[in-house]
Specification:
about 350 residues, single chain
Length: about 350
Amino acid sequence: MSEEEGEGRTISFFEKFLPLWVGLCILIGIILSQVIPGISQAINSFSIGQISIPIGICLFLMMYPAMLNLQVSELKKLGKNPKPIILTLVSNWLVAPFIGLLMARIFLQGYEQLVFAIILLSASPCTAMVLVWGWMAKGNQEQNVVNTSLNTITIIFGYAPMVALLTGIQNIPVDWLLLLVSVFIFIGLPLLIGIISKRLLISSKGVDWFNNIYRPIVGKISIMALLTTLVLLFSMNGNVLITNPGYLLLISIPLLLGFVIVVGYNIIITKLFKLKYREAIITVIIGSSSHFEIAIATAIAMYGIGSIAALGTTMGLFWEVPVMLLIVYLGRFLRKRGFWKS
């Protein structure tokens, strides 16, 4: 994509106010939990293991569109300008996870499932929405595509070991087999189906149809599946929230403080390594974001849909959009001030 095309890209009204829709889904879910007391049992009656079939379908529809972003051909460009790619990988896999763990240890001692939620969020680099933020910030879209494609691959091999490492440091018992199965079901399977469907659709319908018609449609389905999951999640755990409303506030503190530290680190490191603005802003955006879909899916698989861990991961979604928007506008401001090389 050319710079001119990237500069004209904006997010939709619905995407811009995603935190509002998330808040409404939380409210609707809590109301349903009180109006229909048996809703939790009804949802769980259609289940395999800890995953209900309706929720499993929604989680797949959340993950599948993100996997369509993988462009293996773009990975050949890794050697073209490796410095910003390396800095992003360092932030995603060495800085953000341990900052998240540190924040959890400081603020969430005694809340094992909330600590687990922070670990799931901080150990999962984003592979989807960062493409939108990069467009808005007028960053280097070639680097953006390469980075998101690389993240899609590294998350398959790195997510489970990173989660196991961080939970081990925190002495949180984790079922390794269940964690690996979760990664396969919610990352590997959507990726495999995404690769196959992408090739088949492009060969039969063409690249333009795939990019301009199919992907926007499944993208909207993904958001609706996400919001449906939230309604179901909070309807199954409404009583817990009503009796313990401080849970969501409690996890928001380390989440937001962790965002501030990681964003600050990425801004400083891109300055020290003398990146130009278009590369620096993409590094800051991708290096500071998280893959809340896989975090929510893994929390549900490990603890169940009515768990505090699952509720905790939704706050990553709640804060991700406004924080990323702030990064976009902060980047534009710093660019005008000549913070990065022009």
